Amino acid sequence: MEQNARIGPPDQPLFWRDGRMPYVELRVVQDGRKVCYAPHSHVEWSMGAIINGESTFAYRDDAYRVNAGTLVLMNPHWVHACNPIDNQPWAYTMLYVDKDWLTQLRYEAGLLEAPLWQDIMTATIKDEKWYVGYCDMAACLLDSTRTLLEKQSILVEFLTNIMTLFSGQLNLSRETPAPLQKVADYLRAQACEDVSLDSLCNLAGYSPGHLIRSFKKQFGLTPHAYLLNCRVQQGQRALKRGESIADTAVDVGFSDQSHFQRTFKKLLAATPNQYRRSLVHHDKDTASSN
What we know:
Layout: E1 14-18, E2 24-29, E3 45-59, E4 62-67, E5 71-74, E6 80-84, E7 90-97, H1 99-108, E8 124-125, H2 128-142, H3 148-166, H4 178-189, H5 197-204, H6 208-219, H7 223-240, H8 245-251, H9 257-268, H10 272-276, E9 285-288
Antiparallel strand pairs: 1-2, 1-9, 2-7, 3-4, 3-5, 3-6, 3-7, 5-8
Helix pairs in contact: 2-3, 4-7, 7-9, 8-9
């Protein structure tokens, strides 16, 4: 995939953002042998391409082995993890798209009856046409010589086309029991606070053991792991705004910067500094790996 962005060391992640397109972010990893993710989720809709080698792809209750030429798709809040196989080389790009922006795009294209998010049930695509289209779109975003209009146009065109592919799918998303949804909503709202298991049990009306088992079965994470995931998500947003790592760590509920950095890297396979550095000049097209 030809590009003009500065990539840096192949084992370091590259993050591309453009402040004029705040609804999209791109991540590139050229050598993923040391890139290991714990189970986690994103608030955005995500789509990735394996551009070299192969890896595992755990997505909710399913496990896949994906290789070069495969696209992987992840709904907001669905737990997943991609990891190397026996230290074999693999490379990938990952696109993160704001859920509300994508919902509006689908609605305006006539693909949704109402401007409300609908999960996509497809997890992987092995089709040369879609893979090449994705790579062309990613290369355009990474190319600093391409105009803003060109980048916006190719992104909208690709996403509209692939969302059309998924239109008409039956929505088979799990129905979340009301008590568990209340707990998840509470954890997201109180992510920066010191939350007790007792308070969650009182909220749901469950015993501690039953709550932990039921919550993990529904969301793929224990309540504590879900809380940490929410804190990292809030940390990402703060770093995007240019907040310092030290202030962000405290603001999102971690006891210290070291704990925040360890958790951030465990879930996102990148340090907060690697993630933040691409926004040094967030008013323009940026790409950084340092």
